[in-house]
Amino acid sequence: MHNANHQLLDERALSKLKWRCRRGLLENDLFIDRFFKNFEQTLTVGQADALGQLMDLSDNDLLDVLLERKPLDAVVTADVPLACKDMQEVLRMLKTKPLTH
User: What is the secondary structure of the chain as a DSSP string?
Assistant: First the structure.
C-alpha cells in the first residue's frame, strides 16, 4: 500500500482532483492553479490524497494556512487528520513560485 502512494496520478483521478479543488476564494484558486501548472505531470497518489485533505478546510482556513497567518494544526479538525509528510509537502508545493520555462 505504501508504494501505491508513490504512483503517479492517472488522468481521470487528476481531472477529478482538479474539479474538487475549485474554491470560493479567488486567492485560493490562484495558489491551486499555480500548483497544477507546476506539478500536475508529477503528482503522486499520496500527494493527491493530501491535497484532498487540505480541500476539506474552509476557504478562509486554507487561505490562512497558505499565507502562513495560521499553522496547519490550528485549523484542522478531528475529521481532517493532521497529516502526514505528504500534507506538509503539498503545502510547500502550493506555495512554490511558478516554474520558468
Answer: -GGGGGSBPPHHHHHHHHHHT--SSHHHHHHHHHHHHHHTTT-BHHHHHHHHHHTTS-HHHHHHHHTTSS-HHHH--TTS----HHHHHHHHHHTPPPPP-
Residue corresponding to grid cell 499555480: 34
pLDDT in tens, 90-101: 999 999 887 665
User: Average per-residue pLDDT in the chain?
Assistant: 87
Of 89, 80, 87, 31, residue with least CA distance to 58: 80
Residues of the chain with pLDDT > 90, as a percent, come to 67
